[in-house]
Amino acid sequence: MDKFRKIRAYRTEWLQAVFDWIIAYPILKRMERKTTSSVELAYLGDRKMIEQDIRHGAFFMTNHRDICMDSAWLSILLRTRYFIRPYIGIGNNLFGKWWIEPLVRTLRCFVVIRNVSPREQLANAQLLSEYLQMLRYKGKSIWLAQRQGRAKDGNDLTQSGVLKMLTLGSDDFFEAVKLLNICPVSINYEYDPCDYLKAREMQLVRDNPQWKKSRRDDLISMQTGIEGQKGRVVYRLTRSINPEIDELLAKQPEVQQLPRNEQIQLVCNMIDRHIHQGYELYERGKAFEQYLQQQLRKVNLPNPDEAFLMDKLHEMYETPVINHRKSLEYREVG
Question: What residues does 90 pair with on adjacent strands?
Fold first, then answer.
């Protein structure tokens, strides 16, 4: 019996190849022309070293800008340049229609089960951890989004729970992380078409802390992210964090004795620095302020707090710039 039956991607390699080149690639190229000025694959540091790091598969950990397009464009960019097609995690909260789950599982997506009891969460986390470790053992590449999207306010920080889940059952945390071969990727949109929806959600949560997104909200976000204007889009690959882990262990062997939560936070910080250093900084001027005013007018609320909403729109674009500068300062001090 296949214990991964509920979550695994379907084994249809030939169908994926047909879908990629005959359907997905033409559609994504058409969407690139329609919704962006360009979609680029870039590098932070030595390209040859990065290519060596991903040669035998990697766990691509990214920030998150869009429910659908982040993984779709990354997958096609890696496929066309390196013939790498990562397995992609997708939450079952996005299965608003009956046909979505069989379709995405056929297209190399595995299922992240959400909205269950705490007891079921632990069992599902253990199952998912085993599945992902098995994929990496086989040399497969993986992309997994963070639960909260990490992009509501632009403050992209790796969730410790993700690394905790990925290393369940391992006695040596750092060795388990190295086996995953985590290669952080910075995803950069000049304009986030869902920015006004995210600002709206932040006001709703402020006014009612119990407010939760509905499936309809998720579907609206998916449609807006796919069809909205994004400007210049840049995916920036960075090196594996493994050399940084080796350097840390050589200089500070005592970290091996730290509590697991502290070890996890050290690795989260490494991933964040890679992502923050890989940000693309776009020019912002008067035209950008006019764009924000335009987005503000799209917010559909009975009592919109325009000052709060505009502040949040500014925040989600300004925070990455602040984090980028902090990451450079850390590198200079280091």
Answer: 111
